[in-house]
Structures are given as structure tokens and as C-alpha cells.
């Protein structure tokens, strides 16, 4: 990974932060792609950069602001990145969110699907030329075993929202979307030396889980006590970003650094093809 350029989304907390720490230790130049200011329990990106530098004074770090809930922010990020960098060895689509209450992105889409799928879909497509021009480039998408509970439906040329809104099931939908995206992108890049893989990090105690009050908050706190630490959850992400063992492997799904089969829901080829078209329409790539 020495002197390779890596974008890590959501790198100011949780799995993304620990992925950035380890990739810097390997000698990579990590571009932190996240919000500038702190949100909830997060630290500001500059505090995190200081923390990483304290651990590793030689860490190659830079920051470009990115809000995956805003298409304009994504396009601005790509413009700034392309002005500063001529190669992209790894794109780690790590950032994610769970919304228990229905919220919207800046562009009017349901927030969980927007941040977890539509944002990374647009970001990755806008960076494709740079990825393709970089020998051996990789795209790594953080999904979840929750995809087994997901189900993607359409309303015309957009993604059909669940009614009534169910936050955790919508999260599962977005994680299934990650796998559809991984498989279809891998097929589209089969003639290029760019690999695309997805992973389940395991149950991880991170800032993706929203704060809640009352009995929901109590249940949340009990669950989190039994989850992995973010540094443990980052291990498969780091493996897919860096290991020579997965060189040339594409369109696959991993857990604990091993290739496994996703749920049969991810085998719906007709849905996968349609979903790409709908995602392109939603993000203005058509």
C-alpha cells in the first residue's frame, strides 16, 4: 500500500476511522471523505486527523469534505479530488447511517437509502475514469448481513419507499442495494483491471446506530455492549483494500476475510439490472 491513494468515506469515526489508521500504517495516502464538523458522538475530522498523526507521525492524510446526503457535495468532492490527485488505488465506501425516524436527503430521497446507496453510487461512478486509469484499483463496499432482510421495489423510475416507514428494514434494503451495486459494477468493469467487492463487517458498536431515549434507548445500549469494537469490524475492509490474496477477485461478498455467499435475495438478476437504471436516474447519471 506504500504511496497508494485511498479514499475512505465516513473516516472520522467507527470502522472508517480505524480503516484509515491501519491503511496509513501501511504507507497509503488516505483521503478522509466525510463531514468537517462533529455530529452526535463523532469528533471533528481535524481532531481525528490529529489523533491519527499522534499514533503515526508519518501518516499521509488529507481531507476533502463530503456529505453523501447531498449530490452537489459529492460532485464538489470529486472535482476537488481530481484537481489534487491523478490516481485512485482504492475507494472504500464505508460511510453509513440508520434512521429510526424517516428523514430526507438534500435532494429529497429517503435518508438511509440516500446515504448508504445513492450517494456511494454517484461518488463511485464519478470516480470511475480515475479508477480505471489506475492499475489494479479496487472498490470496497461495506454492506451487512442485514441485506438478507432487504427487498428492493420500484415506483416508476425511482426506489419505492416503505410505508409505513420502518427504519431497520429500510437499512436492510440499503445493504441489499450495496450488494446489487457491487455485483453489477463488477460486471460492467470486467474488461478493466478494477475489482469491486462487498463485505459484512460483523455487528459493530459504532456511531451508525442512532441515540434513542426510553425503552428503545435501553435496548440499544444493551445490544451495543455485545457488539465488536470498530477496530475489529474494520479488519475485512482493510483486507479487501490491501491484501494480494484478493487481487483479481471481483463481484464477491466477504465476512471475516473469507468469501461467502450472500443471501439468495441478492441473486435476482432482473432486479439488479433495473436497480442500476433507477439509481442512475435518481442521481442524474442517465
What does this structure look like?
The protein has 286 residues and is α/β, with parallel strands linked by helices. It has one domain: Rossmann fold (3-Layer(aba) Sandwich). Helices cover 42% and strands 15% of the residues. It has 10 helices and 10 strands. The strands form 2 sheets. The protein has an 8-stranded mixed β-sheet with strand order 3-2-1-4-5-8-9-10, sandwiched between helices. A hairpin with a 2-residue loop joins strand 9 and strand 10. Helix 3 runs parallel beside helix 4 and helix 4 packs parallel to helix 6. The chain is globular and about 50 Å long.
- Elements, N to C (H/E): EHEHEHEHHEEEHEHHHEEH
Summed up, the helix count is: 10
CATH architecture: 3-Layer(aba) Sandwich
CATH top level label = Alpha Beta
**First CA to last CA: what distance?**
35 Å
- CATH fold node name: Rossmann fold
Mean pLDDT: 91
Runs in which pLDDT lies below 50 for 5 or more consecutive residues are: none
GO molecular function, one term: oxidoreductase activity
Family: Belongs to the short-chain dehydrogenases/reductases (SDR) family.
Protein name: Short-chain dehydrogenase
Organism: Marinomonas ushuaiensis DSM 15871
Amino acid at each position: 500500500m506504500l504511496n497508494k491513494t485511498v479514499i475512505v468515506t465516513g473516516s472520522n469515526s467507527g470502522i472508517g476511522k480505524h480503516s484509515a489508521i491501519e491503511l496509513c500504517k501501511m504507507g497509503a495516502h488516505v483521503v478522509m471523505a466525510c463531514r468537517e464538523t462533529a455530529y452526535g458522538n463523532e469528533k471533528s475530522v481535524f481532531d481525528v486527523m490529529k489523533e491519527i498523526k499522534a499514533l503515526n507521525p508519518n501518516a499521509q492524510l488529507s481531507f476533502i469534505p463530503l456529505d453523501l446526503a447531498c449530490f452537489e457535495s459529492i460532485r464538489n468532492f470529486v472535482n476537488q479530488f481530481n484537481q489534487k490527485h491523478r490516481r485512485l488505488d482504492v475507494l472504500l465506501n464505508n460511510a453509513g447511517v440508520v434512521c429510526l425516524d424517516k428523514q430526507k436527503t438534500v435532494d429529497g430521497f429517503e435518508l438511509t437509502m440516500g446515504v448508504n446507496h445513492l450517494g456511494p453510487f454517484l461518488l463511485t461512478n464519478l470516480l470511475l475514469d480515475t479508477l480505471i486509469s489506475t492499475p489494479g484499483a479496487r472498490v470496497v463496499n461495506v454492506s451487512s448481513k442485514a441485506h438478507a432482510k432487504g427487498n428492493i421495489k420500484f415506483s416508476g423510475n425511482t426506489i419505492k419507499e416503505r410505508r409505513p416507514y420502518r427504519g431497520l428494514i429500510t437499512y436492510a434494503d440499503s445493504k441489499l442495494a450495496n450488494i446489487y451495486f457491487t455485483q453489477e459494477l463488477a460486471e460492467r468493469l470486467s474488461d478493466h483491471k478494477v475489482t469491486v467487492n462487498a463485505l459484512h463487517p460483523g455487528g459493530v458498536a459504532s456511531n451508525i446506530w442512532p441515540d434513542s431515549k426510553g425503552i428503545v434507548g435501553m435496548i440499544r445500549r444493551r445490544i451495543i455492549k455485545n457488539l465488536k469494537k470498530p477496530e475489529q469490524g474494520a479488519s475485512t475492509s482493510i483486507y479487501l483494500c490491501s491484501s494480494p490474496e484478493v487481487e483479481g477477485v471481483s463481484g464477491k461478498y466477504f465476512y471475516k476475510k473469507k468469501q461467502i455467499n450472500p443471501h439468495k435475495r441478492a441473486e435476482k438478476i432482473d432486479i439488479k439490472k433495473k436497480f442500476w437504471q433507477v439509481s442512475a436516474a435518481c442521481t442524474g447519471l442517465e
